[in-house]
Amino acid sequence: MDNLPGWVIPAVVAALLLLLLLIVLGAVIGGRKRREKQERDRRRAAELREKAEHERLGAQERELQARESSLEADRAKLEAERKQQLAQEQERDARQAREGVDESLRKADEVDPDSGRSRGTGAAERLDAYAPGERRHDDGRLDAYSRDDAPAETDGRTHDGGHRDQDGRGDGAHRA
């Protein structure tokens, strides 16, 4: 070591100190960057968790709406079945009432010596020959009923035997 110039040892020591300083500085800076990155990662993870929670709540809301829609559809189906059953019962009752009326009219025709109908003509044929709200009398007149007023006969007479005027009101005034 005697033949080394005097500046080499202090230069090696300075280089070692500089190297040591760079290592320490790198560790400090690297630690800080690592902490900053970890903090950024924590914030990002929190954002992702918040977004996932928001999406979970949205999914639960859609599932709830789907269940409500399904229940509503089931209720509507049950109501439709109930109405269908009610309609069938009413049709059966109407058919039975119609059969009773037909039977009563048939018996009346058999008993009435003035009916003028052959014994083979049934009441159903007479009832079906007219539209709902119409009735044919034995003298051939046809009554047509309206929902708004009393029965109006097609031969121009009102239900109380009077005659309708030109405007059809039976009040004597002639309006255009």
Molecular structure report:
The chain has 176 residues and is mainly alpha-helical. The chain has 2 helices and 3 strands; from the N terminus they run H-H-E-E-E. It has a 3-stranded antiparallel sheet, with no helix packed on it. Strand 2 and strand 3 (152-153) form a beta hairpin. The longest helix is centred in the middle third of the chain and has 104 residues, at 8-111. The protein starts with 7 loop residues before the first helix and ends in a 23-residue tail after the last strand. Residues 35-176 are annotated as: Disordered. Residues 36-117, 125-176 have a biased composition (Basic and acidic residues). The chain crosses the membrane at residues 6-30. Keywords: Membrane, Transmembrane, Transmembrane helix.
Strand content: under 5%
Shape, per Cα inertia axes:
rod-shaped
Placed side by side, the strands forming the largest sheet appear as 1-2-3
Taking pLDDT < 50 over at least 5 consecutive residues as the criterion, the unreliable ranges are 119-130, 145-154
Biggest sheet, in brief? Answer: 3 strands, antiparallel
Fraction of residues in helix: 55-70%
Number of strands: 3
- Number of helical stretches of at least 4 residues: 2
Radius of gyration: 52 Å
Distance between the termini: 142 Å
SSE topology string: HHEEE
* Quaternary organisation of the protein chains: single chain
**Which structural class fits the helix and strand makeup?**
mainly alpha
